Amino acid sequence: MHFNGRTGLEAALAEDWDAILLDLMLPELNGLEVCRRVRQVKNTPIIMMTARDSVIDRVSGLDHGADDYIVKPFAIEELLARLRALLRRISIEGENNTAKQTTIKYRDLVIEKENRVVRRGDDIIELTKREYELLLTLMENVNVVLARDVLLSKVWGYNSDVETNVVDVYVRYIRNKIDRPGEPSYIQTVRGTGYVMRS
Hints:
This protein is α+β, with helices and mostly antiparallel strands. The protein contains seven helices and ten strands.
């Protein structure tokens, strides 16, 4: 939680948040400006909250990039319901966009989703089911740092009893198959967090 616009903006840009709850009336940098600057570089869902309830204020907030607008005072139940609805919509949109893609590309690495074929250049790369799903998850989230527990839940399932270090093992397997000697690995380690494929 941040109590002024400048530090809030820095935090919003420094990490990948599921959503941002943004007050309009912030010292140093107001909520509209924070929202505008975040929108220049990120698509993080934003709910703007304020005591101002005029149509002009609501329109201004939405025009600056907010996804929703809630007027104070409000019931916490309403805020949570709006947040759930927003995250659900974003998730569905993301799944629909991903589902429409039958081919995923990262540099010269290609995944043909329909037949589960992985190629680097002209070479077909043989991957196990888990290796394929892990690589696909990383390639569908280029430039997003994915924590080990997130990868574990996506690839092995939410109720998996597998330890998070199995992710490290499988990343090593994939690197051995897709990387080329003397070249940087396509899958980068983010120390203490997880992995990312950067464009």
